[in-house]
Design goal:
By secondary structure, this protein is of the alpha/beta class. Among the domains are: about 160 residues, Rossmann fold (3-Layer(aba) Sandwich); about 80 residues. It is built from 13 helices and 10 strands. The structure holds adenosine-5'-triphosphate (ATP). GO terms for molecular function: ATP binding. This is ABC transporter ATP-binding protein.
Length: about 350
């Protein structure tokens, strides 16, 4: 495996655009998971996509690969707008791996890679059923290519093993080999090192460089920052569905908004900060009103008690009323808010399309 560890940022600055996502927005009911995101990947580049949990990274991948139809925006590959259909996106030249490994566990390692080749084989159904010479030739070529890919990822000696018997790190490599089998020009990797130990992670790093050196551009989601900053020519940071920063590893690492987003400290102009401030102000206002009401009721009760000349009882009533008022103030706001939250949750559930990770 030949690898180049230089970032090549200068080399790629003028290279042709492979992926061009513009204004991509994805809403699930009331939730905007991705908001107006632009992103390009050029030939020869490795681009990273990072962000805290729930930032919208996988949703964005799903929009790029046609698994989701974006609410707004469009995705182009090498200058052509992609239809939002996974098989057409693969055919166009974009392949991906998933956060949760998706292999055919009862098939062999080789068969898994052969499945990935089907978008590139032209033999039709009849040819396959009759197993004519055309089919046999195509099948031999596919096997040869699949074995070459297994060699490339270091799994050739396990070609006949069942996929389910591979250790976790090798299953991830097999997923990459299968994605490469469709001869993509762009590979999307969703958390390729999740669950790997340090040495497996280093091997994956080498593998990604080697993929780039084969002329395949890479867009990678990863939580391992060391991996991302070592690997990527450019890194884009998503926070609450919006692209916060994009630049070289140095630019991103030095940006205080990125640090704040990961540590959870709000900063001026943070996505969603206005909404949070609005909710906090409304809560403070409701609390102040409830407290004022409670004080007024307590004062009224004291007056009544004094009028009836029964100080001990009146004090007790006033305390009780005041407790009631406080209880209302505490319980009232969330109780009012609950149905709205429940609606939002229902809406969200109703649009959930199963496991798209
Ligand atoms: N199919 C769906 N239906 C409803 N909400 C969804 C759906 N898919 C994702 N979401 C929501 O969109 C938001 C973004 O989720 P997403 O999985 O894209 O984040 P992520 O950045 O990939 O997170 P992680 O790093 O944890 O994988 C979350 O609030 C999630 O619950």
């Amino acid at each position: 495996m030949t690898t180049t560890t230089e970032t090549g940022a200068a080399k790629t600055a003028t290279a042709a655009t492979v992926l061009d996502a513009s204004g991509v927005t994805m809403r699930f009911g009331g939730l905007t998971a991705v908001r107006n995101v632009d992103l390009t990947v050029r030939e020869g580049e490795i681009v990273g996509l990072i962000g805290p949990n729930g930032a919208g990274k996988t949703t964005f991948f799903n929009c790029l690969t046609g698994l989701y139809v974006p609410t707004e925006g469009q995705v182009s590959y090498k200058g052509t707008v992609l239809p939002p259909k996974p098989h057409l996106v693969t055919q166009a030249g974009i392949a991906r791996t998933f956060q949760n490994i998706r292999l055919f566990s009862n098939m062999t390692v080789l068969e898994n890679v052969l499945v990935g080749r089907h978008t590139r084989t032209k033999e039709g159904l009849w040819s396959a059923l009759l197993r004519g010479p055309g089919f046999k030739k195509a099948e031999a070529a596919s096997r040869e290519r699949a074995m070459e890919l297994l060699e490339f990822v270091g799994l050739a000696s396990k070609a006949e093993h069942l996929a389910r018997n591979l250790p976790y790190g090798e299953q991830r490599k097999l997923e990459i080999a299968r994605a490469l089998a469709s001869d993509p020009g762009l590979l999307l990797l969703d958390e390729p090192t999740a669950g790997m130990n340090q040495s497996e992670t280093r091997t994956t790093e080498e593998l990604v460089f080697a993929i780039r050196d084969r002329g395949i551009a890479v867009l990678v989601i990863e939580h391992d920052m060391k991996f991302i900053f070592k690997l990527c020519d450019r890194v884009a940071v998503l926070v609450q569905g919006e692209k916060l920063v994009e630049g070289t590893a140095e630019v991103v690492q030095g940006d205080e908004r990125v640090v704040a987003a990961y540590l959870g400290t709000p900063y001026e102009g943070a996505p969603g900060a206005a909404e949070v401030a609005e909710v906090e102000a409304a809560e403070a206002h409701a609390e102040a009103e409830a407290a004022a009401e409670a004080t007024a009721e307590a004062a009224e009760a004291t007056d009544d008690a004094e009028a009836e000349d029964a100080p001990a009882d009146a004090d007790a009533d006033a305390d009780a009323d005041s407790d009631d008022a406080e209880a209302e103030a505490d319980g009232g706001a969330p109780a009012d808010a609950a149905p709205a939250d429940a609606d939002a949750a229902d809406e969200q559930h109703s649009t959930t399309e199963g496991d798209s990770k």
